[in-house]
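hey so u asked for the seq, here:
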Amino acid sequence: MLPLLGLTLFVSAFLLFCCEPMVGKMVLPILGGAASVWTTCVLFFQSMLLAGYVYTHLLGKIRRVRDQILIHASLMLIALAFLPIRFSSISGHPSDAPITWLLGHLLIAVGIPFAIISATAPLLQYWLAKTPAAAGRDPYFLYATSNAGSLLALLAYPVLLEPRYGVTAQSRLWLDGYGVLLALVAFAAVLIWKEMTYIKDGETPDIDNTTPAPNWETRAYWLAAAFVPSALMLAVTNHISLNIGSVPFLWVIPLAVYLLTFIMAFARRIRLSTALVSSIATLVLLVLFPIAAVGVPVHASEIWKLMAAHITILFFASLLCHSSLADRRPSTKYLTEFYFVIALGGVLGGIFTAIIAPALFSTVFEYPLLIALVAFFRQPRNADQRMGWKDVAAVAAFGLLLATAIYGIISWARIDITDFALSWNDLKTSNNMAIAITEIVLILAVLLFRRRVFTFGLAFSILVVTYALILPREFEGAARLFVARDFFGVKKVLYDRNENMRKLLHGDTMHGVESLDITLAGEPLSYYHKTGPIGDVMTMLSSRPNQHVGVVGLGTGTIAAYGSPSRHITFFDVDPQVVDIARNFFTFIRRCGNDCNVIVGDGRLSIQAQPDREFDLLVLDAFNSDSIPAHLVSREAVRMYMSKLKPAGVLLFHVSNRYLDVERLATVVALDEGLPAFVRHDDDEEPTGKAASDYVAAVRRAEDLSDIPHKEAWEQVEKPTDIKAWTDDYSNMMSVIRWK
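ran it, structure tokens below
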């Protein structure tokens, strides 16, 4: 029976965690590829998991297991009515209340099947505990089996499923998998039915009636130990999605690490002791916490090392919390309650990171805050849980040392945001060496409290929170004028005194600059310079009458500098905060006046609402934030764009991207549609304010670009042979990642 139960739990978990990235990929285009789409999806799935555990807990109150089996089997059949999973009837405008809108549509489309499947694992464990089988005395090992299925699904999805199948085919395969699960649950239920032992009145006896119920302190510990790693996992995912890309491949890495720590913590045979995990986690957190607390930007060549550091923090922090949780698991009598509290902690963690933190904090402050809380779950050998007046005095002395050290770091840390990189060459400079030595002293000071759990936790929390509150501004290399955060990410407006410029950053990606020098104010700089690719295209169009230019992605509104009475420019942007920033902190939109307008909404849907043959030029400028809204560069999208262009219109892709090869993607889609395409790679010119940029121009006929194809800087592109054009149903982010 145990092999069948293990297989059933494995399949149920595999389906659940294939469902998560699949559904996330289905809804991502609707919300413009925003990084918060995934965290909101995870919050929803955690809520459905909690609903499944509530259902399990309530069903467990029915004393006859046979009745429980019949009820669950009936609900699994009813769930078939909601399959295959699809989002065919999308209604409403997501920009107004994106989180509410997304949660509502997820509930309708996938809520019932997901909740029912999520109940299968704890139910089967509970039913096993009701049988006379020896394994029923401690069925928690099956929790590790279930998580192994989850982990395999998360690894298989981006490597095996996403590259080969579109979301429609994935949904059909998922339905087939659900049919397999139905059969396995039926067979397992039959075996359990036969194994049941009954008392005289036909009811199953309770298990271990002598075990006292967990007290509220224990339940609170379960809740906290589930809350912190869940919230931390989403915080790390947010950071990665904002700075690299909002794609399933990068979504699943933190979630897979999170599940792996569950497997290791609840393993029956091979398991690290919580004391050993506490020792390792202590060192890891002390060494790596500045990366999370300060958020120093790095060169593109270093981003994968930085990502590995964030994943390492998540791994050891989650393993520590989950090991402490496993040490406090109750007897099987309270199994369903234990799983319910774990699920509740996970949901509360999701709510905190996805909803509460963006409302409370203008930056991703929840990330270092959660790292600070992890220290309180340490269980070192010979630990002392007390905290007396001597400890308070010691922490106060540490606070004084920290204040002195922070002053020194601020004095030394004058590092330009565009020049800093995590490398030994930087460390060798005298200022950075002084910073490193100061941090080592602080780490050693905190280690003095390692035997005293609460004292260490308090000192470490003070250290992390102080770093997070004070140092990020010092490492930005410019004065922070404004910072805002919403569903679509964190935006900062900085003033660089050395260059006399204002800059807009989304995450750590620059989205445009404006010089405050009288001679350069209002001039297009950075990626949009007059001597750059977009300047070439605008010059080529200048002879045409009554031009209309559409731009997807507003940023600072720099392209508005090309507006004139004979050239109207319409911007499309999904983020209302970006519109406010462009109008209040930069002058491009104001200078353009009536020759420019801004439409708030998804770029593709907004352009689709425009008349056919309306635009002379469409600029797709939504890819340089290092995440690709896949629906903007699909084959169907390009066809729609071309229908909105005049016969000689130009489709211009801004493909500058540090981590993703958008150029090849845009090229293959354009050439698949029979459109001649040309590319220009531009370099930095610091004296003129021009930044390196890459653009691909696609037209119906090469002559529609006038003399551009004959310019030395432009070259006609060839179709890549190692990448497949994306469609609304199919995309494969693995094929466009820059691995070097």
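Residues 98-129 form the longest helix (32 residues). The mean pLDDT is 81.
lmk if thats what u needed
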